[in-house]
């Protein structure tokens, strides 16, 4: 049976997704083009051999419309003969791009694929693809959920209430994410995965949202971010404990991975970094929205026959602190193996790029820490999740 392996993984630094952010002056097509160009250069592969480029982006409007993955490839000066497409599975879009790439390689439809993602939240604000006055969910959703669905921040509060997560515990978790990311950055652990980006303001070499000085005491001063009277009345169990400090920030960034069959890698003389040993997707209650990571994890481990104890590193996207904390409770996983180099609360969450960014960080971390297996899972709007198992090679 054919396998799928990752032979190169690279990302940009992650910038703050607002005017004045480190990458705000870079068009999202140019940001992804830089990453693709660097991926090809680092691998040394002939780009004519790539069968497809699959990219993830969430807000596909404005500068991120019209299949930007295709134009990023062309903007990078890469061959016109290579096809490209852009997918949307919300926050898991570029992790889904990896899944599609691996499935194509394993099936024999592809030999070599690039999986990537980009989001410029400074230039294309979150939600800007929903036109004013439009109802993207159609009439059937309010019929099925007559009380209405809720924003993600309220879902994070519902998770905190259900799993008994206190404000103090979430603040401590969030401060630890910054501490781990700051330590990794100071030790130079991100350098191998980052392709610095030249902007009109200079060369950007490091993630902008990491705050080494963050402490639980600093976070304790922040006000709840999502409190609204109608939700207080509807959900009396909520204590309004989620703040901007225990939520992922808004960011810009891009990432890309080169995926091929093990046989192709051997023929080209390329050394694989990791094997894509299993993939899974799952759905869950769209009101709670962010809990599908739990059935996705269970499905992935069942399919691969690997136990959670065998997995050396876990990456659970930190959309909000309550999400990975609830996952830890539900799975009984070892907290010491979770988001070892910090998570999205510190590094940032450039939506469509995050799946590929996290996997890039994870592949490099596996080699640094000697983990044989690593697991990545991401919660996604609508009650969805991706989960991926990697094996170090």
Query: Into which percentage range does the β-strand content fall?
Result: 15-25%
What ranges have pLDDT less than 50 throughout 5 or more consecutive residues? none
How much helical structure, as a percent, in the residues?
A: 25-40%
* SSE ordering: EEHEHEHEHHHEEHHEHEHEHHHEE
Task: Look at the helices and sheets and give the structural class.
Answer: alpha+beta
Using the CA coordinates, give the radius of gyration.
20 Å
Report what the structure shows.
With 393 residues, the protein is an alpha+beta fold. It is 35% helix and 20% strand. It has 13 helices and twelve strands. Strands 1, 2, 3, 4, 5, 8, 9, 10, 11 and 12 form a ten-stranded mixed sheet that branches. It has a two-stranded antiparallel sheet with strand order 6-7. Helix 3 crosses helix 13. The protein is globular.
Which helices and strands appear, and what pairs or packs with what?
Blueprint: E1 5-11, E2 15-16, H1 28-43, E3 52-56, H2 68-75, E4 83-87, H3 93-107, E5 112-120, H4 140-144, H5 152-162, H6 167-186, E6 197-199, E7 202-204, H7 216-219, H8 229-234, E8 251-260, H9 262-268, E9 274-283, H10 293-304, E10 311-316, H11 322-331, H12 344-347, H13 351-369, E11 373-380, E12 384-392
Parallel strand pairs: 3-4, 3-5, 10-11
Antiparallel strand pairs: 1-8, 1-9, 2-8, 5-8, 6-7, 9-12, 11-12
Helix pairs in contact: 1-2, 3-13
Annotation keywords:
single chain, 393 residues, alpha+beta, 10-stranded mixed beta sheet, two-stranded antiparallel ribbon, 12 strands, 35% helix, globular
């Amino acid at each position: 049976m054919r396998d799928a392996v990752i032979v190169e993984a690279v990302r940009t630094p992650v910038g703050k997704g607002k005017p004045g952010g480190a990458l705000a002056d870079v068009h999202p097509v140019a940001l992804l083009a830089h990453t693709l160009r660097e991926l090809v250069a680092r691998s040394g592969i002939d780009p004519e051999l790539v069968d497809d480029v699959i990219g993830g982006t969430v807000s596909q409007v404005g500068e991120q419309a019209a299949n930007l993955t295709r134009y990023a490839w062309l903007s990078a000066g890469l061959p016109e003969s290579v096809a490209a497409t852009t997918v949307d599975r919300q926050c898991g879009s570029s992790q889904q791009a990896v899944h599609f790439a691996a499935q194509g390689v394993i099936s024999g439809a592809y030999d070599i694929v690039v999986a990537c993602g980009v989001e410029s939240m400074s230039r294309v604000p979150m939600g800007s693809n929903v036109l004013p006055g439009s109802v993207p969910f159609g009439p059937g959703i309010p019929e099925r959920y007559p009380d209405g669905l809720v924003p993600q921040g309220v879902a994070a509060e519902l998770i905190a209430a259900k799993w008994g997560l206190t404000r103090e515990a979430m603040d401590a978790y969030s401060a630890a994410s910054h501490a781990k990311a700051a330590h990794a950055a100071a030790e130079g652990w991100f350098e191998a995965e980052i392709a610095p980006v030249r902007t009109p303001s200079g060369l950007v070499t490091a993630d902008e949202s990491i705050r080494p000085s963050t402490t639980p005491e600093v976070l304790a001063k922040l006000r709840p971010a999502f409190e609204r009277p109608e939700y207080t009345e509807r959900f009396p169990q909520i204590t309004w404990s989620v703040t901007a400090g225990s939520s992922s920030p808004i960011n810009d960034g891009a990432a890309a991975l080169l995926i091929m069959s093990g046989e192709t890698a051997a023929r080209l003389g390329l050394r694989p970094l990791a094997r894509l040993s299993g993939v899974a997707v799952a759905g869950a209650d769209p009101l709670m929205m962010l809990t599908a990571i739990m059935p996705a994890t269970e499905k992935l481990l069942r399919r691969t026959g690997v136990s959670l104890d065998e997995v050396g590193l876990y990456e659970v996207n930190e959309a909000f602190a309550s999400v990975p904390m609830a996952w830890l409770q539900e799975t009984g996983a070892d907290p010491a193996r979770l988001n070892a180099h910090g998570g999205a609360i510190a590094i940032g969450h450039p939506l469509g790029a995050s799946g590929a960014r996290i996997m890039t960080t994870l592949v490099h971390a596996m080699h640094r820490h000697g983990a044989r297996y690593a697991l990545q899972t991401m919660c996604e709007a609508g009650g969805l999740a991706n989960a991926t198992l990697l094996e170090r090679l």
